[in-house]
TrEMBL record:
Protein name: DUF305 domain-containing protein
Regions of compositional bias (Acidic residues) in chain numbering: 260-275
Species of provenance: Qipengyuania aquimaris
Signal peptide boundaries: 1-22
PANTHER family assigned: SLL0788 PROTEIN
Region described as Disordered: 260-283
UniProt domain DUF305: residue ranges: 57-208
UniProt entry keywords in alphabetical sequence: Signal
UniProt KW Signal keyword: yes
């Protein structure tokens, strides 16, 4: 009876509740602060739930119509100004596709009762600039209209490439906005814009490269028989990788070809589509990439993702292989200190025992990431004698000081932070315990390398007590690079003779005082609007100028194409004046490369010519450049070498990782092909006496470690000969 009564009461309460909820109550829209609220109806209240299209979609379509119209205007100039059939075809294609898309966008707006023209205020304000990416200025349009022939072709292609890139950015911005491009038709259209305009960008880049007079622009592809271009240099030797450091079945580490059936191929021919080969998205399971080098006396060690190879330097500087050491782990950057060889290891597959089987699982006692130490007193039988595990592995390291008792080095880890369960004290969370926003100071006892350890992890990016005191990531404003957050250094070049270090630290270039090697102190820092990722740093021989490189695209992307910005993925030169870094100039490889060549600024070194600042630079598959930056505001190229792409159909990561001057020769590690050696040749830019002086330069201890810079000196008679050779210009 009681149960029945409780059930009846509950039912009555439930009924009353539903009735109350169903009653009409005012729906209020409060308005902005200070405004009176107003009552709205149900239809207005749920208007936001109409997700067929958003205000952002409307602004995008309006802006893209304006954007497309300028492309049409540029294309309409072509028939009267070009005699190049390829340019004419590109212009005709743009006219057809852009006019069709303008018609579609106009109909889309009109069908929804939206204005076709953008609100005039949108053009003048920040919003207008933010969506009108890549459009040419009135001055550029006037200059294009006044040009003809090859001059028109180059301007047209450069402007149109930038214009198309702007459209891709507009689509990307739209897709990142919540609720935008939700409508299926809208989403499909924007994706078509991306695919069509990217294809046109690729075609225009290739054509613009063909218009270049630089012999490096259109070299033929091949692993061993690629086309070559050289100026101001002599190729002394080109050595392939040693046995055990490449896959004989796939030496270029190409991706596997996806076989097509005959019916599919015929269908593409019928549709007039180019039947391009298709490849699997994954490359070889093995990684044999050559990386960095170090030199001691007549000994050269070349690092690799697979271990390292040791060579003796013979006649004309030609290396002779003396031993190969297999120890997979990624990076493989190396440095000499007496009979010890230090090696950086970062990959999660690396093992304590140098085993080839890799490591499974998120946490493993077998995993090694950090600094390896080898005894190379017998270079034919290197022995691993020490390990220092670090939270982020070791991407690079820098030997700061060394004596008979202790080695001090800085470790730069750039990878993920490992689990605290695998290495105690490793956290990537916010707070003072984080492994981010620091470098490692490591001490190695020479008599007992197994006792090597981290002695400090200084917060070199801190400002006003905040450990994240430098660049927080993001772009620098309209038309600038999206730059990585500064929570680590990629390279730190130490200059003990000056008690200075220059750090290329992801989002910043920094200068540190290393008077006390164990306690580095940041004394200057700078950002650069053209830098995506601060990669490496080199001082001039007198320490007054610092050259920083930007690894835009991470090293695996084709960032030297004809339409790419000349101040992105480049070198920037800064004067070090009164403890501050002052921008002076920028330099980038002038020769356009193809979309099958990864290319961006990478590692190099000073070529020691008295009275001049000369630098040899590796550009991956862009080859090597020798650059004069004596006037840092006007750097220029004085010599180069380049090969064509590794493969004509695939973008394979390859080219020069490093190019270094040592004892009169330039040594360059080719990631995929092997090791190349060059000699400078006299030219209009360089006298025989200047080359002889560079060959006679004296490096302290006969040692070259890539991130430890020594101040070179010259015999007096050599300097006098150089000065005499320059008389009369």
């Amino acid at each position: 009876m009681k149960t029945t009564l409780r059930t009846m009461v509950a039912g009555m309460l439930l009924t009353t509740s539903h009735a109350a909820l169903a009653q009409e109550v005012p729906i209020v829209l409060p308005g902005a602060p200070g405004e009176a609220p107003r009552v709205i109806d149900r239809e207005e209240a749920i208007a936001l739930a109409d997700t067929s299209y958003s205000p952002g979609d409307v602004v995008f379509m309006q802006g893209m119509i304006t954007h497309h119209r300028q492309a049409v205007q540029m294309a309409e100039l072509a028939p009267d100004r070009t005699s190049n059939d390829a340019v004419s075809k590109i212009a005709a294609g743009i006219l057809a596709t852009q006019k069709d898309e303008i018609a579609f966008m106009t109909e889309w707006l009109e069908a929804r009762g939206e204005a076709v023209a953008m609100d005039h205020s949108m053009h003048a304000g920040h919003a207008g600039h933010s969506i009108m990416k890549g459009m040419a200025t009135p001055a550029q349009m006037a200059e294009l209209a006044a040009s003809s022939g090859t001059d028109f072709d180059r301007q047209f292609l450069r402007l149109m490439i930038e214009h198309h890139k702007g459209a891709l950015t507009m689509v990307k911005t739209l897709h990142e906005a919540p609720g935008s491009a939700y409508e299926p038709v809208m989403f499909e259209f924007t994706n078509d814009v991306v695919s069509d305009q990217q294809a046109e960008i690729d075609r225009m880049n290739a054509l613009l490269a063909q218009l270049s007079s630089d012999p490096r622009a259109t070299l033929t592809a091949g692993l061993r028989d690629a086309g070559e271009a050289i100026s101001g240099l002599r190729l002394v030797a080109a050595q392939p990788k040693p046995a055990g450091f490449f896959d004989p079945k796939n030496p270029a580490q190409l991706q596997p070809l996806i076989e097509k059936d005959e019916e599919e191929s015929e269908a593409k021919k019928d549709d007039d589509e180019e039947d391009k080969p298709q490849f699997g998205k994954r490359g070889s399971l093995l990684d044999f990439a050559n990386t960095d080098m170090a030199f001691s006396g007549d000994l050269l060690v070349a690092g690799s993702y697979h271990g390292f190879n040791a060579y003796r330097l013979g006649d004309d500087g030609v290396p002779q292989l003396v031993s190969s050491t297999v120890c997979p782990g990624g990076q493989g950057d190396v440095s000499f200190v007496g009979d010890l060889l230090v090696m950086s290891v970062q990959d999660s597959r690396a093992r304590v025992d140098c085993g080839l089987q890799g490591v499974d699982g998120k946490v493993s006692e077998d995993r090694f990431r950090g600094i390896r130490i080898f005894d190379i007193s017998d270079i034919t039988r290197p022995r691993q004698v020490g390990l220092v595990q670090t939270c982020r592995g070791s991407h690079t390291h820098s030997i700061v000081s060394a004596d008979d008792e202790t080695i001090v080095l800085y470790n730069s880890g750039t990878s993920y932070v490992r689990d605290d369960e695998e290495l105690a004290g490793c956290f990537d969370t916010a707070g003072d315990e984080t492994a981010l926003f620091s470098i490692d100071v490591i001490e190695i006892p020479v008599a007992n390398p197994s006792a090597a350890r981290i002695v400090d992890s200084p917060r070199v990016f801190a400002t006003d007590g905040q450990i994240a005191g430098l660049w927080r990531g993001g772009d620098h404003g309209e038309g600038t690079q999206d730059t990585r957050i500064t929570n680590q250094c990629h390279d730190i070049t130490v200059f003990p003779a000056k008690n200075l270090a220059a750090g290329a630290c992801s989002g910043n270039g920094i200068i540190m005082d290393i008077s006390d090697p164990r306690k580095p102190v940041r004394i200057a820092d700078v950002t650069d609007k053209g830098f995506a990722y601060w990669h490496s740093a080199t001082f001039s021989n007198d320490g007054t100028t610092v050259l920083f490189t930007d690894e835009w695209g991470g090293g695996g992307r084709p960032r030297c194409q004809a339409g790419d910005p000349m101040d992105w993925g480049a070198n920037a030169f800064y004067a070090l004046e009164e403890g501050k870094l002052e921008y002076r100039g920028t330099y980038k490889l002038p020769a356009p490369q193809s979309d099958k060549e990864n290319c961006v600024a990478h590692n190099g070194s000073i070529i020691p010519v008295p009275g001049r600042d000369i630098f040899v630079q590796a550009w991956y598959q862009g080859g090597i450049s020798v650059i004069d930056f004596t006037d840092a505001a006007n750097p220029f190229e004085i010599a180069y070498f380049d090969r064509g792409p590794i493969d004509e159909d695939q973008l394979v990561t390859g080219g020069y990782w490093s190019a270094y001057w040592y004892n009169g020769r330039i040594y360059a590690t080719e990631i995929t092909r092997g090791l190349d050696i060059f000699a400078l040749e006299p030219s209009e830019f360089l006298t025989a006496e200047e080359i002889a002086a560079a060959e006679a330069a004296q490096f302290e201890g006969g040692l070259f470690n890539p991130q430890t810079q020594t101040q070179v000196t010259w015999p007096d008679e050599v300097v006098r000969a150089v000065e005499e050779s320059r008389k009369g210009g």
